[in-house]
Specification:
alpha+beta; Aspartate Aminotransferase, domain 2; Aspartate Aminotransferase, domain 1; three-stranded antiparallel β-sheet
Length: about 210
Protein backbone atom coordinates (compact mmCIF):
# COMPACT_ATOMS: atom_id res chain seq x y z
CA UNK A 1 0.00 0.00 0.00
CA UNK A 2 2.76 2.45 0.95
CA UNK A 3 4.69 1.62 -2.22
CA UNK A 4 1.63 2.28 -4.38
CA UNK A 5 1.05 5.64 -2.70
CA UNK A 6 4.65 6.68 -3.38
CA UNK A 7 4.38 5.46 -6.96
CA UNK A 8 1.18 7.43 -7.60
CA UNK A 9 2.78 10.61 -6.25
CA UNK A 10 5.88 10.18 -8.42
CA UNK A 11 3.82 9.35 -11.50
CA UNK A 12 1.63 12.40 -10.96
CA UNK A 13 4.74 14.58 -11.00
CA UNK A 14 6.27 12.66 -13.94
CA UNK A 15 9.35 11.71 -11.91
CA UNK A 16 11.96 9.13 -12.77
CA UNK A 17 11.93 6.13 -10.43
CA UNK A 18 15.16 4.24 -9.73
CA UNK A 19 14.18 1.21 -7.66
CA UNK A 20 16.99 -0.72 -5.95
CA UNK A 21 15.85 -4.32 -5.38
CA UNK A 22 19.10 -5.79 -4.08
CA UNK A 23 17.39 -6.90 -0.84
CA UNK A 24 14.05 -7.80 -2.43
CA UNK A 25 14.37 -11.58 -1.92
CA UNK A 26 15.35 -11.32 1.74
CA UNK A 27 11.85 -11.39 3.17
CA UNK A 28 10.95 -13.71 6.05
CA UNK A 29 7.42 -13.74 4.62
CA UNK A 30 8.76 -14.77 1.18
CA UNK A 31 6.88 -11.80 -0.22
CA UNK A 32 7.71 -10.19 -3.56
CA UNK A 33 7.34 -6.43 -3.20
CA UNK A 34 7.27 -5.81 -6.94
CA UNK A 35 4.20 -7.52 -8.33
CA UNK A 36 2.20 -4.52 -9.48
CA UNK A 37 1.79 -4.33 -13.26
CA UNK A 38 1.21 -0.57 -13.20
CA UNK A 39 4.60 0.02 -11.58
CA UNK A 40 6.41 -2.37 -13.92
CA UNK A 41 4.89 -0.71 -16.98
CA UNK A 42 5.74 2.83 -15.90
CA UNK A 43 7.76 4.45 -18.69
CA UNK A 44 10.24 6.20 -16.38
CA UNK A 45 11.01 3.19 -14.18
CA UNK A 46 14.53 1.77 -13.79
CA UNK A 47 14.95 -1.40 -11.72
CA UNK A 48 18.43 -2.30 -10.51
CA UNK A 49 19.47 -5.45 -8.68
CA UNK A 50 22.21 -8.05 -8.42
CA UNK A 51 23.33 -11.38 -7.01
CA UNK A 52 25.50 -10.29 -4.08
CA UNK A 53 22.90 -10.40 -1.28
CA UNK A 54 20.41 -13.11 -2.25
CA UNK A 55 23.07 -15.57 -3.40
CA UNK A 56 26.07 -14.52 -1.28
CA UNK A 57 28.05 -13.58 -4.40
CA UNK A 58 29.50 -10.44 -2.84
CA UNK A 59 32.58 -9.19 -4.66
CA UNK A 60 31.75 -10.85 -7.97
CA UNK A 61 30.06 -7.65 -9.09
CA UNK A 62 27.30 -8.97 -11.27
CA UNK A 63 23.97 -7.22 -11.51
CA UNK A 64 21.32 -6.13 -13.94
CA UNK A 65 19.03 -3.27 -14.96
CA UNK A 66 15.46 -3.49 -16.20
CA UNK A 67 13.69 -0.64 -17.93
CA UNK A 68 11.36 -0.15 -20.88
CA UNK A 69 12.85 3.24 -21.61
CA UNK A 70 15.25 4.03 -24.46
CA UNK A 71 17.68 5.16 -21.78
CA UNK A 72 18.85 1.54 -21.62
CA UNK A 73 20.57 1.91 -25.00
CA UNK A 74 22.61 4.83 -23.67
CA UNK A 75 23.49 2.87 -20.53
CA UNK A 76 24.71 0.00 -22.68
CA UNK A 77 27.01 2.27 -24.69
CA UNK A 78 28.59 3.65 -21.52
CA UNK A 79 28.85 0.25 -19.85
CA UNK A 80 30.67 -1.43 -22.73
CA UNK A 81 33.45 1.14 -22.41
CA UNK A 82 33.70 0.78 -18.62
CA UNK A 83 34.03 -3.00 -18.41
CA UNK A 84 35.02 -5.70 -20.87
CA UNK A 85 32.91 -8.67 -19.81
CA UNK A 86 31.67 -10.73 -16.88
CA UNK A 87 34.02 -13.73 -16.35
CA UNK A 88 32.52 -17.01 -17.53
CA UNK A 89 32.65 -18.70 -14.12
CA UNK A 90 30.56 -15.87 -12.67
CA UNK A 91 28.07 -16.18 -15.52
CA UNK A 92 27.81 -19.93 -14.88
CA UNK A 93 27.34 -19.38 -11.15
CA UNK A 94 24.62 -16.80 -11.82
CA UNK A 95 22.74 -19.21 -14.07
CA UNK A 96 22.84 -21.88 -11.37
CA UNK A 97 21.63 -19.35 -8.80
CA UNK A 98 18.63 -18.49 -10.94
CA UNK A 99 17.84 -22.15 -11.59
CA UNK A 100 17.73 -22.86 -7.84
CA UNK A 101 16.21 -19.52 -6.88
CA UNK A 102 13.14 -20.64 -4.91
CA UNK A 103 14.82 -23.31 -2.78
CA UNK A 104 17.89 -21.19 -2.10
CA UNK A 105 15.97 -18.08 -1.08
CA UNK A 106 13.54 -19.93 1.18
CA UNK A 107 16.43 -21.66 2.95
CA UNK A 108 18.36 -18.40 3.36
CA UNK A 109 15.32 -16.53 4.68
CA UNK A 110 14.61 -19.31 7.17
CA UNK A 111 18.17 -19.05 8.52
CA UNK A 112 17.96 -15.25 8.75
CA UNK A 113 14.64 -15.44 10.59
CA UNK A 114 15.95 -17.98 13.11
CA UNK A 115 18.98 -15.78 13.82
CA UNK A 116 16.78 -12.71 14.19
CA UNK A 117 14.48 -14.52 16.62
CA UNK A 118 17.45 -15.64 18.73
CA UNK A 119 18.86 -12.11 18.85
CA UNK A 120 15.40 -10.83 19.82
CA UNK A 121 15.14 -13.41 22.60
CA UNK A 122 18.56 -12.67 24.12
CA UNK A 123 18.59 -8.88 23.91
CA UNK A 124 14.96 -8.38 24.94
CA UNK A 125 15.85 -10.02 28.25
CA UNK A 126 18.50 -7.33 28.71
CA UNK A 127 15.99 -4.53 28.23
CA UNK A 128 16.61 -3.75 24.57
CA UNK A 129 13.73 -2.75 22.33
CA UNK A 130 14.39 -4.60 19.10
CA UNK A 131 12.52 -3.37 15.99
CA UNK A 132 10.03 -5.75 14.40
CA UNK A 133 11.64 -7.05 11.22
CA UNK A 134 10.15 -8.99 8.30
CA UNK A 135 13.28 -9.16 6.19
CA UNK A 136 16.87 -8.18 5.60
CA UNK A 137 20.21 -9.38 6.89
CA UNK A 138 21.17 -6.49 9.17
CA UNK A 139 19.72 -5.04 12.35
CA UNK A 140 20.65 -1.89 14.25
CA UNK A 141 20.91 -1.96 18.04
CA UNK A 142 20.59 1.20 20.15
CA UNK A 143 23.55 1.39 22.57
CA UNK A 144 23.01 4.98 23.73
CA UNK A 145 22.32 3.87 27.33
CA UNK A 146 26.00 2.93 27.77
CA UNK A 147 27.38 6.36 26.92
CA UNK A 148 29.91 4.95 24.46
CA UNK A 149 30.49 6.04 20.90
CA UNK A 150 29.73 3.24 18.47
CA UNK A 151 33.33 2.75 17.34
CA UNK A 152 34.55 2.50 20.95
CA UNK A 153 31.77 0.03 21.78
CA UNK A 154 32.67 -2.16 18.79
CA UNK A 155 36.39 -1.96 19.52
CA UNK A 156 35.87 -3.13 23.11
CA UNK A 157 33.52 -5.89 21.93
CA UNK A 158 36.11 -7.09 19.43
CA UNK A 159 39.12 -6.90 21.75
CA UNK A 160 37.46 -8.37 24.83
CA UNK A 161 35.02 -10.89 23.33
CA UNK A 162 36.31 -11.46 19.76
CA UNK A 163 32.97 -10.46 18.22
CA UNK A 164 32.81 -8.06 15.28
CA UNK A 165 30.00 -5.54 14.79
CA UNK A 166 29.79 -2.44 12.60
CA UNK A 167 29.86 0.99 14.30
CA UNK A 168 26.82 3.08 13.47
CA UNK A 169 29.03 6.13 12.89
CA UNK A 170 29.93 4.58 9.52
CA UNK A 171 26.38 5.40 8.41
CA UNK A 172 26.45 9.01 9.58
CA UNK A 173 26.78 10.94 12.83
CA UNK A 174 23.11 10.46 13.71
CA UNK A 175 23.73 6.70 13.94
CA UNK A 176 26.63 6.92 16.38
CA UNK A 177 24.30 5.67 19.12
CA UNK A 178 23.80 2.34 17.30
CA UNK A 179 25.75 -0.69 16.14
CA UNK A 180 24.87 -2.91 13.20
CA UNK A 181 24.60 -6.68 13.59
CA UNK A 182 24.71 -9.05 10.63
CA UNK A 183 22.22 -11.93 10.74
CA UNK A 184 23.86 -13.83 7.88
CA UNK A 185 25.95 -16.41 9.69
CA UNK A 186 25.62 -20.08 10.50
CA UNK A 187 23.17 -20.68 13.34
CA UNK A 188 25.63 -22.07 15.89
CA UNK A 189 28.26 -19.41 15.22
CA UNK A 190 25.63 -16.68 15.36
CA UNK A 191 24.29 -17.92 18.70
CA UNK A 192 27.82 -18.00 20.11
CA UNK A 193 28.42 -14.42 18.97
CA UNK A 194 25.12 -13.15 20.40
CA UNK A 195 25.79 -14.91 23.70
CA UNK A 196 29.15 -13.13 23.88
CA UNK A 197 27.48 -9.84 22.97
CA UNK A 198 24.98 -10.38 25.80
CA UNK A 199 27.83 -11.09 28.23
CA UNK A 200 29.62 -7.94 27.10
CA UNK A 201 26.47 -5.86 27.60
CA UNK A 202 25.99 -7.37 31.06
CA UNK A 203 29.56 -6.44 31.97
CA UNK A 204 28.91 -2.84 30.92
CA UNK A 205 25.79 -2.72 33.08
CA UNK A 206 27.73 -3.95 36.09
CA UNK A 207 30.47 -1.33 35.75
Amino acid sequence: KELIEIYNLLKKNKCWIILDLIYEDLSYLNHNIINNKHILNYEKLILVSGFSKSYSMTGWRIGYIFTKNKLLDLMFKINQHLITNVPLFIQDASIEALKNHDNQIKKFNKELKLNYEYLLLKLSKLGFKIPSYVGGMFIFIDISKFGLKSDIFCEKLLNEYKVAATPGIFFGSSWDSHIRISLSNYKNEFKLAINKLANFISSLKNN
